C-alpha cells in the first residue's frame, strides 16, 4: 500500500468517519489511541458523536473538561483555602468553579461543527471525528480498515479522501 503514503499530513487534518453503531465508533477511537501510544499517529482530538433516537446528537469527548476543571479547581481552591485556614471550603468552591469553567470549555474540534457534520447520521449511528497531526498513513489506515466506515467529511484533498475511503472499504 505505498500509495497511501500520500495521506501523510504536515498540518492537522480533520477526518469524520461514520459507523453503524456507537460501539464500532468507540472501538475505532480506542484503536487510534492505541496507535498513538505506538507513535504511529498524533491526535489533536478524537470525539465520538452519536445520533440518538430523538434526533439529538450526543458527543463523547476524548477529554472530559468538566471533571478536569473540577479536579484542578479543587486543588487550587484547597491551596487558597490554606491561606485562609479553611482548605475544605476552598476546595469545594474551587471544584465548583472549576467544573463550571470546564463545562463551558471546548478543546479540540468545535462541538457545534461536530453536531452539524453529524446531522447526516441515521438514528443510533455514530461518527468518529478526529483531528490528526502526524501520521504513518500506511500502517494506520491498514489497521483501521478492520472497522470499515464511510468518510463523511475531511480536510484532505479529494484524491486523498478517495484513497482513504477505498482503504476503509477494503478495495
Question: Any key phrases for this structure?
Answer:
2 domains; 6 helices; elongated; five-stranded antiparallel sheet; Alpha-Beta Plaits; 171 residues; alpha+beta
Protein described:
It comes from Xanthobacter flavus. This is Membrane protein. It holds the Pfam family DUF1269. The protein is about 45% helix and about 20% strand. With about 170 residues, it is an alpha+beta fold. The chain has two domains: about 120 residues, Alpha-Beta Plaits (2-Layer Sandwich); about 40 residues, no CATH class. Strands 3-2-4-1-5 form a five-stranded antiparallel sheet, sandwiched between helices. Strand 2 and strand 3 form a beta hairpin. Helix 2 runs antiparallel to helix 3. It is elongated, with a radius of gyration of 19 Å. The relative contact order is 0.27.
Q: What is the gyration radius calculated from CA atoms?
A: 19 Å
Q: Which class do the helix and strand fractions yield?
A: alpha+beta
**Overall pLDDT confidence:** 79
Helix segment count? 6
Tell me what portion of residues adopts beta-strand conformation.
Answer: 15-25%
CATH class descriptor of the largest domain: Alpha Beta
Query: What is the topology, as strand order, of the major beta sheet?
Result: 3-2-4-1-5
Level of helix content?
40-55%
CATH arch. level architecture of the largest domain: 2-Layer Sandwich
Output the helix-strand order: EHEEHHHEHEH
Give the oligomer, counting copies of the same chain as homo and different chains as hetero: single chain
- The N- and C-terminal alpha carbons lie at a distance of 11 Å
